[in-house]
Write a structure and sequence with these properties.
Helix content is 11%, strand content 53%. By secondary structure, the chain is mainly beta. A hairpin with a 2-residue loop joins strand 3 and strand 4. The N terminus is likely disordered.
């Protein structure tokens, strides 16, 4: 941890020591960030984002883009475990067109000597008043300083949303279903998610999701949102494998939405996050 914070000390390490250090960094801290870039609202709800219908559906479930009827632009940033070297920055937009909504997004994770980039081009469409579908083509890249081979590849993801009744919404999503790899040694995980949102009343919504990642045990995710007033919401959540608690707030000011979250990993500590979006 101290070596990460003292960036100058890291730079003067020899090439072999730097490579070894980056390998340890990947094992300890980088938990499939390419596959799991989340926005602040989703993080505050225990990583439950399958049923939301805003610009951040670019990251969680592209089917949600289909419900957007105006141009929306968003930016977000997360400080993983309070370390500058593990920052995650995101830009996303949604563009309604005839027949659907186009989504564009860019996610950058890491620092100068190790970073991951994900660029997505999405499309969401309403197939009926109660059923949305979305797809996204992804470019994935990993940079590991100038002395090592850098990796890149393409994959895709697909999701659906279904309004089951007045209170229940179903969401499902799969990332990298064909198990594309960066190379023979570097796997890109496939990730399947399914979940429900229950709108108990106009103020309270309850979220639950199950996530299953290739070669990993499944995880359970729970979240609750309480709208004190129409413009201000309190959120909390919980997830397993690894165990994390989360909380956050959301505030809508005219056409601007601001979401703040903090989640706590059972071993590695706190990760604050901010997401801001605006409709035009």
């Amino acid at each position: 941890m101290n070596t990460l914070s003292e960036y100058n000390n890291f730079i003067i390490l020899g090439p072999q020591m730097r490579s070894f250090f980056i390998f340890i960094l990947q094992l300890l801290f980088i938990q499939n960030s390419i596959a799991q870039s989340l926005d602040a609202k989703t993080n505050s709800l225990g990583s439950c984002g399958l049923t939301q219908t805003n610009v951040w559906s670019n990251l969680e479930n592209q089917a949600g883009l289909a419900s957007i009827n105006k141009f929306v632009f968003g930016i977000g940033s997360k400080k993983q475990f309070l370390l500058n070297e593990l920052n995650n920055h995101t830009i996303a937009c949604a563009i309604p067109i005839y027949g659907g909504v186009i989504g564009l997004n860019l996610n950058y994770f890491g620092f100068e000597l190790y970073n991951e980039t994900k660029i997505g081009l999405a499309f969401g469409k309403k197939l009926s008043p109660s059923f949305n579908i979305g797809v996204q083509l992804d470019y994935l890249g990993t940079y590991v300083n100038e002395n090592l081979n850098n990796l890149h590849n393409f994959t895709f993801e697909i999701g659906i949303q279904k309004q089951l009744n007045r209170e229940l919404v179903l969401g499902a999503h799969i990332f990298n279903p064909t198990t594309v790899k960066l190379n023979e040694e570097e796997n890109i995980p496939s990730l399947f998610k399914i979940g429900l949102r229950y709108n108990a009343n106009q103020k309270v919504s309850v979220f639950t999701e199950g996530h299953l990642e290739s070669n990993q045990n499944g995880s359970l995710h729970l979240g609750v949102e309480y709208k004190i007033i129409k413009e201000f919401a309190l959120r909390t959540g919980f997830s397993t494998n690894p165990t994390k608690n989360s909380f956050g707030v959301g505030y809508t000011l005219s056409k601007i939405e601001i979401d703040v979250s903090v989640n706590k990993h059972q071993d590695l500590g706190y990760s604050p996050q901010l997401s801001v979006s605006s409709r035009f």
